[in-house]
Design brief:
InterPro entries (chain B): AAA+_ATPase, ABC_transporter-like_ATP-bd, ABC_transporter-like_CS, DrrA, DrrA1/2-like_C, P-loop_NTPase
CATH superfamily of the largest domain in chain B: P-loop containing nucleotide triphosphate hydrolases
Helix content of chain B: 25-40%
GO cellular component, one term (chain B): plasma membrane
CATH topology of the largest domain in chain B: Rossmann fold
Radius of gyration of chain B: 23 Å
CATH architecture of the largest domain in chain B: 3-Layer(aba) Sandwich
Pfam family, one (chain B): DrrA1-3_C
Order of helices and strands of chain A: HHHHHHHHHHHHHEEH
Number of domains of chain B: 2
Number of strands of chain B: 14
Membrane topology (chain B): Peripheral membrane protein
Number of strands of chain A: 2
Largest sheet of chain B: 6 strands, mixed
Strand order of the largest sheet of chain A: 1-2
Structural class of chain A: mainly alpha
Structural class of chain B: alpha/beta
Radius of gyration of chain A: 19 Å
Strand content of chain A: under 5%
CATH class of the largest domain in chain B: Alpha Beta
Largest interface: A-B, 23 and 26 residues
Strand order of the largest sheet of chain B: 6-7-8-3-9-10
Bound molecules: adenosine-5'-triphosphate, magnesium ion
Number of helices of chain B: 12
Number of domains of chain A: 1
Order of helices and strands of chain B: EEEHEEHEHHHEHEHEEHEHEEHEHH
Distance between the termini of chain A: 20 Å
Strand content of chain B: 25-35%
Organism (chain B): Alkalicoccus urumqiensis
Oligomer: heterodimer
Shape of chain A: globular
Chain lengths: 274, 311
């Protein structure tokens, strides 16, 4: 336990110390919020609204904000896991590996560290809520926190798994391009996933991020106050190949996905560093 | 007393190279054991295998009574390691680096502060404890690594080229620290270096070349094995001088190297006057010395360590 704590604590210490990284990591979500939330929201709203016959009630910024928080969780979790490659390159991993901490504790500590850092980043984004004129309830924000951590843990597992298979920073960057970007764009984070071509719909439904994003939207957005048309326009009535899914099922799915990835990542890290 | 490290038939083969070739040796409790050899001799590979960081191709290693292949956790608790390359977290302060190490090695909470103070004192870094490591000089980083290696009171401290890349003054200082430590804690030290003068502080040295241990003994015994002293002289015509010395002292071993005539004799006091009298060729310089480990290396491998390092 002490070992897990030490590994976790180091990642947090470094996160708060590295001001450049701390602020740098907000440029992307803020840029997205500006472009999608500010610049494009009118276009998006009239497009989405009229398409579904939802009329006025479609608030795009309200729709996209949880998606951008989810995107931040995804990026931060995965990039934080990259730190094990960095630790190798800068030699520190040797100090960790030659110590009596078990390989399992190292992997778990790293994943918890990445997930914590990602969750904190997400929480910091909440500060923008009043600036954007949004009004999610405090209760819903508190409710979404544990889920954010769970979701981040799953993604940190994915990151650690990739990092222990790839081992080079360049390789990791490439994986991020071909995996992370599509995972964001094909998840419903930035625009509703209605009326997709069939092949794309399959990818969207196979993408775990889709369900993470959906849960966050369902918790944060006051769904009941929206007309059924707007709910539809926002893509909140998600069905998987014809079968509607409930939020509980989605949460269970993400929990299972997290457990699987944490196991795989731990196993793979142990194998790579016998 | 049981040896603290016991290595039998240790071998490591990479695809084409045999980095370590069937070596055996023991290290006694409390001794400074020097591991010498040119670049690529297999020193780091051997250390990494003893420290459980690398799986041997074959052979067995026992350390502090534990089997390095089967009881890795126990071995890791018993050792401290100063790696050849820097393994500090430079974004953190000295103190934070040490604190993490205490956690990694489960140093009891109540003892951490005292231990950190103690090791920082040994390496004279007390006033720098809250400074970030990336502001440290190379020598300070090295000292901090040594301090860190000691935090958990290891039974054996491994130092893989602890002074590489440091200026001579810092190197001398560092050795002072290491010796101070040895006196204070009576830890066993296993060190590698290719500066032969540094190896002189070892109680015993093993000379490694191309994956094999070619000699192992106390520095004095190794030098004695060479027998006698070395007279180095240069003259206006080294070849002529050589013939003259050979005629006068047939039992002397003579080599010519870099314009220097190196004459090995059993006892320089006895032979130096004979040699000088026998020379008609004018002598330009003369130096009489006891053999060094460099001469030992030369005798065992036919090369000087610096030459061996170049191929
Ligand atoms: N991972 C590896 N793959 C292939 N060959 C290796 C590997 N690691 C080391 N070697 C080879 O094994 C031999 C011994 O290397 P080692 O690092 O143990 O030498 P060393 O004595 O520590 O040298 P130095 O003084 O340069 O540190 C070298 O020929 C090296 O090229
Ligand atoms: Mg080496």
């Amino acid at each position: 336990m002490e070992g897990i704590y030490a590994i976790w604590q180091r990642d947090l210490l470094k996160f708060f110390r590295d001001k450049a990284r701390l602020f740098g990591s907000f440029t992307m979500p803020i840029l997205f919020l500006l472009i999608f939330g500010g610049g494009l929201s009118g276009t998006m709203e009239s497009m989405m609204g009229s398409m579904a016959g939802a009329g006025e009630g479609f608030n795009y910024v309200e729709f996209v904000f949880p998606g951008i928080v989810a995107m931040t969780l995804l990026m931060t979790s995965i990039f934080s896991s990259l730190s094990i490659i960095e630790d190798k390159d800068f030699g520190y991993m040797k100090e960790i590996l030659v110590s009596p901490i078990s390989r399992v504790s190292i992997a778990v500590g790293k994943m918890l560290g990445a997930a914590t850092v990602a969750t904190i980043q997400g929480i910091i984004l909440f500060l923008l809520i009043p600036l954007l004129g949004l009004s999610y309830s405090i209760v819903s924000l508190l409710q979404v926190l544990p889920f954010m951590f769970l979701f981040a843990a799953a993604l940190s597992g994915l990151g650690l798994l990739i990092a222990s298979l790839i081992r080079s920073t360049q390789g990791f960057q490439m994986i991020v391009q071909v995996l992370v970007m599509p995972m964001i764009f094909l998840s419903g984070a930035l625009f509703p996933i209605n009326n997709m071509p069939a092949w794309m719909d399959i990818i969207v439904k196979l993408n775990p991020v889709t369900y993470g994003v959906d849960v966050m939207k369902k918790i944060m957005i006051d769904v009941d106050s929206l007309s059924p048309q707007v709910q539809n326009a926002m893509g909140l009535n998600l069905d998987v190949f014809g079968r509607p899914v409930t939020m509980i099922e989605e949460i269970l799915f993400i929990a299972g996905f997290a457990a699987l990835l944490v196991l795989l990542a731990t196993f793979s890290f142990r194998r790579a560093n016998a | 007393m049981e040896p603290i490290i016991s290595v039998r038939g240790l071998t490591k083969t990479y695809k084409q190279t045999t980095a370590v070739n069937n070596i055996d040796f023991d290290v006694d409790q409390g001794e400074i054991f020097g591991f010498l050899g040119p670049n690529g001799a297999g020193k780091s590979t051997t250390i990494n295998m003893i420290c459980t960081m690398l799986a041997p191709t074959s052979g067995s290693i026992t350390i502090n009574g534990w089997n390095a292949a089967k009881q890795r956790g126990k071995v890791r608790e018993s050792i401290g390691l100063i790696f050849q390359e820097n393994t500090l977290d430079e974004k953190l302060t000295a103190r934070e680096n040490l604190m993490l190490h205490c956690r990694f090695y489960r140093v009891p909470k109540s003892r951490r502060a005292a231990r950190i103070r103690e090791v920082l004192e040994i390496v004279d870094l007390t006033d720098k404890e809250n400074q970030r490591v990336d502001t440290f000089s190379g020598g300070m980083k090295r000292r901090l690594e040594i301090a860190r290696g000691l935090l958990h009171y290891p039974k054996v401290l491994f130092l893989d080229e602890p002074t590489v890349g440091l200026d001579p003054q810092t190197r001398a200082h560092l050795w002072e620290y290491i010796l101070r430590l040895k006196k204070k804690e009576n830890i066993t030290m296993f060190l590698t270096t290719h500066y032969l003068d540094e190896a002189e502080i070892s109680d015993r040295v093993a000379i490694m070349d191309q994956g094999e241990i070619i000699a192992i003994d106390t520095p004095d015994a190794l030098k004695r094995q060479l027998g006698g002293d070395i007279i180095e002289l240069s003259s206006t015509d080294n070849e002529a001088a050589r013939r003259e010395v050979e005629a006068a002292v047939p039992e002397a071993e003579i080599t010519v190297d870099d314009g220097i005539l190196r004459i090995k004799v059993a006892d320089s006091d006895k032979f130096v006057s004979t040699i000088l009298k026998s020379l008609d060729t004018p002598v330009t310089s003369l130096n009489i010395r006891r053999p060094t480990l460099n001469d030992v290396f030369l005798a065992f491998t036919g090369r000087k360590i610096s030459e061996a390092a170049e191929d």
